[in-house]
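Hypothesis: this fold can be encoded by more than one sequence.
Test: take the structure tokens below, design a sequence, compare later.
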């Protein structure tokens, strides 16, 4: 009998990745502070750090807070030198807020990365130097993939930090449009979203074809590993 990997999809409320694993027969659960959009009974509402010890075979962390860890957030964390107040801060935020959010982002990433789970994938952009200074020396560089590698005509660089897992292989790579063309602008939909209350939530939604690819590739690898068979 083939073993059925237990998969935890962290920081996901949409259910897109959870359903992709379930469709392939894996024992998949999602976890997020928000309730599941689809009302699934396979969603754990709460802090993912509280369920990492529950016997999972594969952990896929989708959208952990990365605002203070990614390169675009570097300007809010340093004036002269390192970790000193910058000349300006985001409207309505304090230097104490920046430090706290940075520490929380580091803690969440590291707790997931060091979870007692054999196979871990954490989605996060390339980190700035202050964040890398807080990371293990052997943390690998992320694999950067694009939705158009999996049949979605869009641009949105997605970084995966992988432990015990093979890099994703493109499944349906599309030809890219000419830069500046109308089609190119449509492919940049995510980056062109106007400001709004739901902008962050909408930008965090995952692409179904990419979800199917990681479920097929990483889920199958987990199952083969558990069977002692080389994938």
């Amino acid at each position: 009998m083939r073993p059925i990997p237990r998969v935890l999809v962290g920081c996901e409320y949409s259910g897109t990745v959870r359903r992709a694993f379930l469709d392939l027969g894996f024992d998949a659960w999602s976890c997020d502070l928000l309730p599941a959009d689809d009302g699934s009974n396979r969603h754990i509402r709460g802090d993912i750090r509280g369920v990492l010890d529950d016997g999972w075979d594969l952990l896929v962390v989708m959208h952990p807070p990365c605002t203070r860890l990614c390169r675009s957030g570097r300007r809010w964390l340093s004036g002269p030198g390192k970790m000193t107040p910058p000349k300006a801060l985001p409207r309505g935020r304090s230097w104490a807020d920046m430090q706290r959010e940075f520490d929380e982002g580091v803690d969440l990433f590291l707790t997931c990365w060091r979870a007692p789970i054999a196979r871990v994938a954490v989605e996060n952009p390339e980190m700035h130097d202050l964040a890398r200074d807080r990371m293990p020396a052997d943390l690998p560089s992320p694999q950067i993939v694009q939705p158009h590698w999996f049949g979605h005509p869009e641009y949105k660089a997605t970084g995966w930090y992988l432990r015990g897992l093979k890099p994703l292989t493109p499944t349906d790579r599309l030809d890219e449009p000419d830069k500046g063309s109308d089609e190119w602008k449509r492919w940049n939909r995510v980056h062109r979203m106007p400001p709004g209350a739901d902008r962050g939530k909408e930008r965090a939604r995952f692409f179904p074809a990419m979800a199917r690819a990681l479920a097929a590739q990483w889920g199958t690898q987990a199952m083969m590993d558990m069977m002692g068979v080389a994938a």
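The mean pLDDT is 90. The first helix runs from residue 16 to 23.
Hypothesis status: open.
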